[in-house]
Amino acid sequence: xxxxxxxxxxxxxxxxxxxxxxxxxxxxxxxxxxxxxxxxxxxxxxxxxxxxxxxxxxxxxxxxxxxxxxxxxxxxxxxxxxxxxxxxxxxxxxxxxxxxxxxxxxxxxxxxxxxxxxxxxxxxxxxxxxxxxxxxxxxxxxxxxxxxxxxxxxxxxxxxxxxxxxxxxxxxxxxxxxxxxxxxxxxxxxxxxxxxxxxxxxxxxxxxxxxxxxxxxxxxxxxxxxxxxxxxxxxxxxxxxxxxxxxxxxxxxxxxxxxxxxxxxxxxxxxxx
Length: 273
Prior knowledge:
Helix content is 13%, strand content 48%. It has 4 helices and 14 strands. It has helices spanning 41-45, 109-119, 162-171, 230-238; strands at 26-38, 52-54, 59-70, 76-90, 95-106, 123-125, 132-134, 137-144, 147-159, 177-185, 192-199, 202-218, 244-256, 264-265. A hairpin with a 4-residue loop joins β4 and β5 (95-106).
């Protein structure tokens, strides 16, 4: 058999499985800017496929992360900005509460490929420079083809105590499931060769947290300005911001698939053995 069923492969597959000298899944130095805001439930629901449904509150969370010391990249770094919707997954077998990633921009090819092909995370490329800090305000942005997509900021920050950080983490238990939707089209581009929801476990361990006031500003772009992403950007920009409910800057670590939890397909129906 050409392929070992117990190994991980990515295209091009002819040269064997992924040569990971260290199967490290830890991100050793992560700085994040996080802004969550309420939006219109009906408008958000248009982008949420069944058996997902909008969560108790229709919340959009925009998160910037500067990832340094990434073990599986031999200590290298990359940045991302993700857009997540609060959802419930109501399959007959799996029933979870958490966040569905609607889009995630990253500035490095390698995590984009692994995220899309393996995990079902809808990753796309953007230029994302390291965050800037000026007069107490933290700022980050993403652009593509020389045109800005969005910018995120946080200021008037107040630090949380270790006790408050621990209590906040405890309050999120059972609600911190990260979900995506894996879709790979047929060779002719029409219809799916692969189509199913996914669960990609990860653990964000914050050692420092500051709360404050935040903003997210979206641009509206034309086909000429961003021919491959303008429809995504404009759809997200058109979701109304009905009020920011949470803003944080965090520093800490991230671990993918912690404690042996593996990325998997979410089950919409009960398995028959």
